[in-house]
Amino acid sequence: MLQAIVSVTLTTDHLQDTAAIYGRWLGFKPAATGRIPPQLAALWNRPAMGGKPFQLLQPASNCGVYLRLIESVADSSYVALRDLGWNANEMLARDPEQLARSLRTSAFTIVGEPRPLTMNPAVVAMQARGPCGEINYFTRLPGDGRSLLDCTAESFVDRTFIVVCAATSMARMSEFYGATLGLATTDIIDARIELINRALDRPIDETRPMRLARVGRDFLIELDEYPSDTAARRWPADNLPAGIGMVSFRAAPGSGSRLSRLPWLRSPQPIAEPPYGGCHAGVLVGPGGELVEVISAD
Q: pTM of the prediction?
């Protein structure tokens, strides 16, 4: 049912400064500006977000996958990876080693040095905390069939290709993203993810269940099972969740009848502003409390 990632949304109390940071260090540029329409804020069940300024940023490759920044009061207590929901934004990068050298003097904080993945040494990734407390992965794929996705960066830092989500039940995540949203999923593996273990104050070699859900040909959702006592992300009454507050997906053509049966927060409505372009948008709440926005032309 879901075909592609359209945007990853962050809230920031300094919209222009955050946009400038992504522009200077990652080469992202403005694709659209405006204010959140009240109709859209109502779909999110957060009417106070209506009228908030936003910017859509896109990488230098000019692809149609965006970072959406919304100016709103940020949660200064937020620490990424310690709670449930959307936990990381993974972007394609040509040279993680060179990028790491550049980011050492930037507003990003490197939290994971570039290195090959244990599960697939052909893939090299690094991690950095951004200006809104968000965690970004920057990953070089080989582009020769040695990874699950056969795509490579078309600019120094390119588009999102994986978003990372956490919940306390792999069964519930599998049901939601597999059966409800119609995504094919990989087998469950026991993965040792040091960055998560450090954030949760767990033993560095602890493993946890992980699987991937495929979104179209070029995107994935990583599903991480967290300990049962992990806190849910706070969702203030007048704001989106801190960190990555929402991920927006485009539905595949012909999904209309299936979309009509989903448990929407509010009935989907057409939205004129970018990135919607008059398509219908609606929001679902996933098993980790994450907000899943679905954009459909049907």
A: 0.96
